[in-house]
Amino acid sequence: MTSKLQIIALFGTSADPPTVGHQLLLEGLLTIFPKVVTWASDNPMKTHGTSLEKRQSLLNALVKSINNPNLELVQAISSPWTISTLKKASSLWPSAELVFVIGSDLASQIPQWTNAKAIMQKTRLAIAPRDGWPLKSEQIQELEALGGKIDLLPLVIPATSSSTIRANLERTHIPTSVLRLLLKHHLYGFTSKA
C-alpha cells in the first residue's frame, strides 16, 4: 500500500500587522489544503513597522483565534529569502508536496525575487486573487516560463492593507485578537483611546 503524499500550503507574511485579509486567506486555505503553515517574515522589499518578534506574536494571536488543528505557525522556516524558507520547509517535511501561497498583488514581483527560477522549480505556486489586484495572463506566462506550476485559488481576498492600517490607524480591518495586542502594547500608535 502506498502512502498519500502530504500536501502543505505555505503562507509567509510580513504580518505588519495581520489584517482581516490575512485571516480570510488562512481560513480559505484550510478549506482547500489538509495542512496550512504560516510564519512572520522580513520582506527585503519593505520597511517594517515593528520587530519581527512582535509581528510573529501578532500572527500567533491570529492563528490561535482561528483555532484549527490543521493550521500551524512554524517560525523556524522564516527567512527574508523564499528559497531559504523552501529549503527549511523541505527539510522539516521531506516527503510533502509544498505549495507556496501568495496574493495576486505579488505575482508581478516574483520574477525579480532572488533565485526566482529555483523557487518556481522547487514548489507549486498557489495564487489567491486579491481585490484590486487582477492577475494578468502575461504574469502567469512569465511565471510558467520560469518553470512554475501555478494554481489559481478559488478565493477572493479583500484589498485590506497593513500599510493603510498603519497610516490611518484603521481598526475595522484588524482581527479582534490582533487588535487586543496592538492596544495592549501600543503598537503602530494604537491606543485604547478612540
Descriptive report:
This protein is 37% helix and 16% strand. It has seven helices and six strands. It has helices at 20-32, 52-66, 82-92, 116-122, 137-145, 162-168, 176-185; strands at residues 7-13, 35-40, 71-73, 97-103, 124-128, 149-152. Helix 2 packs antiparallel against helix 7 (176-185). It is globular, with a radius of gyration of 17 Å. The chain starts with 6 loop residues before the first strand and ends in a 9-residue tail after the last helix.
Task: Kindly summarize this structure in a few lines.
It contains 7 helices and 6 strands. It is of the alpha/beta class. Helix 2 runs antiparallel to helix 7 (176-185).
What are the main properties of this structure?
6 strands, 7 helices
Beta-strand proportion: 15-25%
> What is the average of the pLDDT values?
92
* Outline: globular
Main structural class = alpha/beta
Low-pLDDT residue intervals, each spanning 5 or more residues: none
Pattern of helices and strands: EHEHEHEHEHEHH
N- to C-terminal distance: 61 Å
> How can the largest sheet be summarized?
6 strands, parallel
Helical amount among residues, as a percent range? 25-40%
Oligomer: single chain
Number of E-state strands: 6
What's the number of helices?
Answer: 7
Main-sheet strand order equals 3-2-1-4-5-6
Q: Which value, in Å, is the CA radius of gyration?
A: 17 Å
